[in-house]
Write a structure and sequence with these properties.
143 residues
């Protein structure tokens, strides 16, 4: 499942809508796989968000981030309101209802890809996928 999640995130980081849809379709084939993938990706969203903001971001930071992500990820059709709802859910610990469709999961993966890409340090040799490795290790250690 982690391989499938990485394929979705890689396509989202590269803003490759065709590859993104194909990778997401592979996850949607099984409700159990999609649920686990979304849960993992929500944990990634939370970990990166809290690390970047040294704790829970303020409502103003969430508002600004929602606008920025929706503008930067226009290719995926995520709205500022949808991103905002997701970020509020992640910061309050109330997981959003994603459903069983690719459309419901799109924002979860697109937000994670954006957060990973913008929080990583490629100029220092830390690409988004290396940062994801660190985040996943921290999630597993805390779990």
């Amino acid at each position: 499942m982690e391989t499938l999640v990485r394929a979705v995130l890689d396509a989202a980081v590269h803003r490759d809508s065709g590859r993104f849809e194909g990778a997401l379709d592979a996850l949607v084939g099984s409700q159990e796989t999609l649920t686990k993938a979304v849960e993992l990706t929500l944990a990634v969203n939370a970990a990166v968000l809290f690390e970047v903001h040294d704790g829970r971001p303020s409502p103003e930071q969430v508002n600004e981030l929602s606008r920025n992500i929706s503008q930067q990820e226009q290719w995926a059709g995520v709205s500022a309101a949808g991103v905002h709802a997701l970020l509020v859910a992640v910061t309050t610990g109330n997981p959003p209802v994603v459903g069983s469709s690719a459309d419901g999961a799109t924002a979860v993966f697109v937000v994670a890809a954006n957060l990973l890409a913008t929080a990583s340090q490629p100029d220092e040799g830390e690409w988004w996928f290396n940062y994801l490795d660190k985040v996943e290790a921290a999630i597993e250690a805390a779990g």
